[in-house]
Design a protein that fits this description.
The protein is of the alpha+beta class. The protein has two domains: about 90 residues, no CATH class; about 130 residues, no CATH class. It contains five helices and seven strands; from the N terminus they run ααββββββαααβ. Strand 4 and strand 5 form a beta hairpin. The radius of gyration is 20 Å and the shape is globular. The protein starts with 8 loop residues before the first helix and ends in an 8-residue tail after the last strand. The structure holds ligand LQESDW3C and manganese (II) ion. The site of manganese (II) ion (MN) has 3 residues, from loops.
């Protein structure tokens, strides 16, 4: 199985930065005083609200296309290396995180933002990656209404990128990624396994949100 992730991070960040600034400007323009300007928002029905939703949808399409291209390129590269011909039966599990979607919950039409979370509606397939050194999981959603049919997107961090760079040594990174073919240099320490929570504990904590279909042992991890 070939999990691909992070395919619109730069475009998504540019879109987010642009619209956050626009929302702050709108708050000032309409004399809306917030306790913190990071709470700036677009009221539904305004042009800026529609523009934002359209931009987010564009980023999701861009990310999906990117993942498809990565998958095609990986399979092409493998065909060039593996002498025996093989069929790649592609069952793509498309699993967006950090997005907004119109859904119906508790009898109301609402906008659900999944930040660091993915959809876990009943029967929906998802991917929960562990870290560079840990397992990843293919899951099936249980449709838990209390979680707005969501589950975690991954293990989640215990250290910020800056903390990880300060606190984790290269030797620890090498030990924690033993058996995984991946980069073992200073520039990936911000994503080193011990910067994340133990994925097994995270999976146990969300046993009422998803069922595990496959547990994947990482063999190769490519960071661009
Ligand atoms: N299998 C891998 N999982 C990884 C890797 N780097 C991070 N992660 C996991 O994914 C989530 C989400 O990452 P994010 O960068 O979008 O926040 C994270 O919580 C980790 O559990 C990796 O190289 N391989
Ligand atoms: Mn993320």
């Amino acid at each position: 199985m070939l999990p691909c992730t992070r395919s619109s991070i730069r475009a998504g960040n540019a879109i987010g930065t642009f619209f956050i600034e626009l929302a702050k400007q709108d708050m000032r323009k309409w004399f809306i005083n917030l306790p913190d300007e990071d709470l700036a928002y677009f009221p539904e029905g305004t042009d800026h609200f529609d523009d934002y939703v359209e931009a987010v949808e564009w980023a999701q399409d861009f990310a999906a296309l990117n993942r498809r291209m990565m998958m095609t390129n990986v399979i092409r590269a493998l065909r060039g290396q593996i002498a025996k011909p093989f069929d790649a039966e592609l069952e793509a599990v498309n699993c967006h995180h950090n997005y907004v979607r119109r859904e119906n919950h508790f009898g109301q039409n609402v906008l659900v933002t999944r930040k660091g979370a993915v959809r876990a509606a009943k029967g929906t397939m998802g991917i929960i990656p562990g870290s560079m050194g840990a397992k990843s999981f293919i899951v099936r959603g249980l449709g838990n209404v209390e979680s707005f049919e969501s589950c975690s997107h991954g293990a989640g961090r215990v250290m910020s990128r800056t903390q990880a760079k300060k606190l984790v040594s290269l030797d620890e990174h090498i030990a924690d990624t033993a058996g995984v073919e991946c980069r073992k240099d200073e520039s990936v320490i911000d994503e080193t396994p011990r910067a994340y929570k133990p994925i097994e504990a995270v999976m146990a904590a969300q046993a009422d949100l998803v069922e595990i279909v496959h547990a994947l042992k990482q063999v190769v991890c490519v960071k661009g």
